Amino acid sequence: MAHPQMFEDDDPALQRFRTIALTLPEAAEKISHGRPTFFTKKTFAIFGGTLKIGPKEMEQRPHAMIIKPNPLDAEVLLERPGSFVPMYLGPSGWVGLEFADLDDGEIRELLVDSYRNTASARLIKALDA
Asked: For each of the chain's 129 residues, which pLDDT tens digit applies?
């Protein structure tokens, strides 16, 4: 069964996020589990996420970015207001951050870090070129 679409394609926040994410070498976008997902061979970012509050209780975070930072950076990021451990991906080191709290420079920096933690050596070399 397909997941329902969990975003509006004309959302200005998504447009802003997409513009930054797709500047990274060979980055592409697909819809996975109802959300815009950015990847090369592996996913490096997701627009929107879900926070598990309790048994059968979830909170949608439609304007969050889900990224995979370095483990030490994850600890620091989770101390920020608006941060959360995303459902399903959190145990693997992924972090959610409310998108509205970030400026374009911060978004790019976070996306680049996540990209570095998921991309191949060849793509990281292209990023650094």
From this structure: 688 999 999 999 999 999 999 999 999 999 999 999 999 999 999 999 999 888 889 999 999 999 999 999 999 999 999 999 999 999 999 999 998 889 999 999 999 999 999 999 999 999 999
How would you class 35 by CB atoms within 10 Å of its CB: exposed for 0-12, middle for 13-18, buried for 19 or more?
A: buried
Instruction: Report d(CA 99, CA 90) in Å as an integer.
Output: 17
pTM score, whole prediction = 0.94
Phi-psi label, residue 9: left if phi above 0, alpha if psi -120 to 50, beta otherwise: alpha
For residues 6, 92, 30, 34, the Cα torsion angle rounded to the nearest 10 degrees is -20
List the Cα angle 40/31/67 in 5-degree steps. Answer: 55
